[in-house]
Amino acid sequence: MLTAQEIAKSIISEFQSREDLITNLKLQKLLYYVQGWHLGLFGEPLFAEDFEAWVHGPVIPDIYHSYKKYKWSPIVEETKKPNLEPKIDKHIIDVLDEYGMETGWALERRTHLEKPWILARGGLPPTEECIELITKESMRSFFKELSHG
């Protein structure tokens, strides 16, 4: 199984190859959609790490800490794309083509309307701190339903 860090590097390097910018906020949300759609379409996770239901949407803490030095600025360190299987590359590109044009803020708002983040927060107000896990099962179910809609 791949790691979230490998997928994050793939996303960052893809944005860099497009001469586009990506922030930590946007990276987190795109990781969430890459994982969610993989769960929904193929029934299995792409990587093992779990997302937490933070105030600004789904976050993998280790990835957040890897890039937190950039704060709200774009990630500018040159990132080498990992060697992934072609079908995984295609999946990532498909998700980026669908969601990558949206801002990090727009993606955050989108995740706040979706069942996996809402369920994990268990009724907490959107601005209250939370580190509850977003289950892979809730993501699989949600994205599977979306794929049939």
Brief rundown of the structure:
The chain is mainly α and 149 residues long. The chain is built from seven helices and three strands, in the order ααββααααβα.
DSSP strand content: 5-15%
Largest sheet: 3 strands, antiparallel
Query: Can you write the helix and strand succession as a string?
Result: HHEEHHHHEH
Number of helices: 7
Question: What is the oligomer described by this structure?
Answer: single chain
Terminus-to-terminus distance = 29 Å
Structural class: mainly alpha
Query: What is the count of distinct domains?
Result: 1
Tally of DSSP β-strands: 3
Helix content: 55-70%
Mean pLDDT: 97
Largest sheet: spatial strand order: 2-1-3
Unreliable runs: none
Rounded to an integer in angstroms, the radius of gyration calculated over CA atoms is 14 Å
Shape: globular
Description:
- This protein has 149 residues and is mostly helical.
- The protein has one domain.
- Helices cover 56% and strands 6% of the residues.
- The chain has seven helices and three strands.
- It has a three-stranded antiparallel beta sheet with strand order 2-1-3.
- The longest helix has 19 residues, at 24-42.
- It starts with a helix and ends with a helix.
